[in-house]
Design brief:
Layout: E1 7-17, E2 23-28, E3 34-37, H1 45-51, E4 59-64, E5 78-81, E6 98-102, E7 108-116, E8 121-124, E9 134-145, H2 148-153
Antiparallel strand pairs: 1-2, 1-3, 1-9, 4-9, 5-8, 6-7, 7-8
Bound molecules: zinc ion.
Length: 157
């Protein structure tokens, strides 16, 4: 069976930055594979395009350029806030802390504190992997049809 729309796909893979010998930032092994329903918008489209048509036992190794991955870093998504806006426990205010925010429409989003000065807390709302080329290497462990219930729920059971 080949990877295609509405198939449940199980993968083991490693994700590296810079090159295939670069920094390992994510790993799913055979004991705890990554599972998803293909074509439901859960994964990067660029990633899905690269593995479409593969079947169980196939190995893959590919690079996603910045524009196929999480895009360039948007400087306008790095914002200074006054300390007074953070009405939370001070222990959560440190460089590298990831905090929940709401945008103007009330949607949940995450921001990472990247700098703290006397008069501002600087928060980066870019995806943590923005600006990066991504290097994936892995194997297709299983491909099967999603059940009607899985399709309804939009996730793998
Ligand atoms: Zn469910």
């Amino acid at each position: 069976m080949n990877i295609d729309q509405n198939k449940v796909v199980e993968l083991s893979f490693k994700l590296f930055l810079n090159d295939f010998n670069g920094e390992l930032i994510q790993e799913f092994d055979k004991d705890e594979p990554f599972k998803f329903i293909f074509g439901t918008g859960y994964l990067l489209e660029g990633f899905e395009n690269k593995i479409k048509g593969l079947s169980k036992g196939d190995k893959f190794k590919f690079k996603l350029q910045v524009d196929e991955a999480y895009g360039e870093v948007d400087e306008e998504a790095i914002i200074d806030f006054p300390h007074s806006m953070f009405n939370i426990d001070k222990e959560y205010i440190y460089v590298g802390s990831i905090l929940p925010f709401k945008d103007e429409e009330g949607n949940d989003m995450e921001g990472t504190i990247v700098e703290i000065s006397d008069d501002a807390v600087t928060v980066d709302f870019n995806h943590p992997l923005a600006g990066e080329d991504l290097y994936f290497e892995g194997e297709v462990l299983n491909v099967r049809n999603a059940t009607p219930e899985e399709l309804k729920h939009g996730h793998v059971h």
